[in-house]
Design a protein that fits this description.
Pfam families: Tub. There is one protein chain. By secondary structure, this protein is of the alpha+beta class. Helices cover 13% and strands 26% of the residues. It is built from six helices and 15 strands.
Length: 356
Amino acid sequence: VSVPFYSHVPVSLHPPATTGSDEEDNSDASTKPIRSGKKKNPVSLFQTGGDPPRERKTRKKAPKAAESEEETLETQQKNSNKKGKGKKSKKKEERPLSPVIEVDNLEKFVLSPAPQGVTIKCRVTRDKRGMDRGLYPTYYLHLDNDKKVFLLAGRKRKKSKTSNYLISIDPTDLSRGGENFIGKLRSNLMGTKFTVFDNGANPDRANADWSNVRQELSAVVYETNVLGFKGPRKMTVIIPGMNSDNERVPIRPRNDNDGLLMRWQNKNMDNIIELHNKAPVWNDETQSYVLNFHGRVTHASVKNFQIVHGSDPDYIVMQFGRVADDAFTMDYNYPLCAVQAFAIALSSFDGKLACE
C-alpha cells in the first residue's frame, strides 16, 4: 500500500512496550482530519519583551528578509493545502513544495527568522560516503523546490569528547576555522542535551562590550526512556524569545552556568521560550503512533517530529520527517531561522541518543 495521500504518517511502528524501529514502513495510516481551533497570532507566543541593556546590539536581519519574501506568502498559502502538486519528485509520492524564496545573501538568510506567515520548506539529504573510512555522514540542507537552492551543510567532528557538529554555508568547506563556518551543535556527554551556537567567539576571547561573543541560538533536550520502553521520543526545544522588532533576543552566556540549558533547568525563563514535540496519537488500526504531516512526510521513522508551542499546538514551529532512506523534509516557520532548525534536525541523527 503506498502512502502518498495519507495525511497522518506513522512516527514509530510499535506499541509503547516493544522495540522501536527506524525502518521504513508502508503501513496504512489514519486519514482523520486534524482539528484546527481558533487561529491565534503566533507572533505573540514568542515575544518576551525588552532586551537586557548590555545586549542591545542585535543584528538587524529579520525585517530585510521579510521584505524580500513578502510576495511568497500568497504562493505558500496557495500550495499549502493542496496535495500532490510537487512537479519534481524522485519517489511516486508528490509533496507540496516550498514557495519561491529569494536568497540573495546566504549568511543573512540562514540566520534570519522565517518571515511571518511563510513556511520555508527544505530537504535534508544524508551523504554516507566515506563512512567505510571512519568519516561521519555529511548532511546537506536545500530549499525543497525546483531550484533546490543550497542553504547549509553539517558534519560531526572527529576526535571530540562530545558530539560536535559543524554547520557551514559552503557544502565543500566544513572546517572550524573557515570563513564559511556559521554555527555548531554540541551535546553533553550522555548525548541527550544539545546546544546550538552561532559563529561568535568563545567567552574567553570576549572584547570589552561582549559584542563578539557567540550567541546560543537554541537547545534541545531528549527525555531518556526508562524501563526499556521504546515509545516515541520526547523533545524539549529552548529558543531565545523575540523582541518588539521581531528580532531574536541575543543570549550570550558569559560562562557554562548562564546558557539556555541552565536557565531552563533553573526555571529562569526571562527572554527564552520553551517548545515541545507534538505528542503522536496511537492508532489501533495501524498499530503505530501517527502525526499529521500534511503530505510532507511519507515514511515511518522514530526521527519524525513536529515542534509546537504549548499555547497553540496547531501552529507548527518546525517539522521534520523521512521521505526516503537518506532524505528528509524539514519545514520551519517564524520565529526559527534555518540554522536553528537544521541544528535541531541534526540532533535527532546523533548516535548516542539514549532515548531511541
